[in-house]
Specification:
Largest sheet: 7 strands, mixed
Structural class: alpha+beta
Low-confidence stretches: 190-205
Number of helices: 14
Strand content: 15-25%
Number of strands: 17
Helix content: 25-40%
Distance between the termini: 43 Å
Shape: globular
Length: 451
Amino acid sequence: MTRIGFADHLFLRMHHGIGNPVVNQFLWLLDTAVSGDDLEKLRTNLSRGLLARRVEPPTLPTARHRWVASTVSLPLELATSPLPSDTVLCWAEQRVIDDLDPEAGIGWQLAAAPLSGGGMVVSLVCSHMVADGAAMVEAIRRANSDNSRVDARDLGTSPSLFGGIVEDLGDTVGEAKPILQWVAEKVVATATSVFSSGQDSASGSGQIDPPRRQNVDQASGPWSPPYVVVECSAAEWHAAAAEWGGTSNSLFIGVMTAISEALGRAMPGDELRRALPYSDRDPLDIDSNSTKIIPVRVPVSDRQDRDLTRIRKASKAAFTDFTARQKAGTASPTVPLPLIQMLPDVVVARLPMPTDGAEGLCSNLGQLPEDFITIGGVRARSVAARATFAGADAAFARTLGGGSTAWATETDEAITITLHGMDPDRMVTDSAVRDVVADVLQRWKISHRFW
């Protein structure tokens, strides 16, 4: 039996209406179309892999939910009419469907559409509860392999009533240990001191002054997060990173920070907190969410300043600090996660939404493996990745504090960046955000094309 983790439970609650469900999506842009038979083979293999899971409630409410293998999946959605290349992102948005339901065992769907100019776009959407980005990469790699060492059978099946009670009792006892330890610590320390010291050790970066933002009128009317995908020359990207004393990752952070400044989210001299996902997932892992978030302070520079050395040093320090705190066992939050996980939805819905003050996510998946880039024997020119809040509106975006979230992937020829703008007052339309992205990339002299 496989119990769900805290992050899994968080994303499950979003499916219950506490926030908006988070859906991950990969898009492969191919210059040659893949056959329907090869796509169906990929879908069949995915339906036997670790995406084929269903979340099941425990017999005892104090125990964690469990993962079991799912025997159902959505069919391949293969468009029959060619798609104009300038409508790929609109098509991608329409693939984020309401049918995804981890409790019914339907957590993902594969889709594809031929392009009018030749080639094809392939989409894999997946509930974030079922898999994070690293887990989705592994799922595709295993589906492309004839010798997958781990699949849905390793998740187990539903226990009997008696077996479920026994297993849930054991899980409850195990989860109670950190809770009892926390209660004991609360007895010998005041609530204020425990909360304060816990917050400092959890963030590892202390307090920073809030960024200065340009005043703008609050937008009204319908709004959805601007969605931009830009394909950059990999050779020029790496050359720019080296020229300005950085790495591919620090250039990515620098570009995103410059975009925030250009949009009026911050001014030169400020510091922004960026959230950097980190995964050390093992190929044999069966977890759905194993990525950890590392906060890093990023200086906001003048528009003419392209130096990346400070960002590189700040990122290295953040990763070093995070690793040290993990090793010392001080990276845990103040309140035990098992206690939060035991709370029912009705209680969690009344709690204030947590925020870490981050300007946004910068998720760099780096160089993608060959057996992920290749679909049905056809190698993708570029691959775009993202996570999106399904149905997010302006009111919801404001509760997050605005900002932007971005993902970067690399193939031999391209660095592909996907950006979602979550500030409804400064990031109003796709075209306006594209203009800002183009201007920032030109500062580093990087050739690019928008999807």
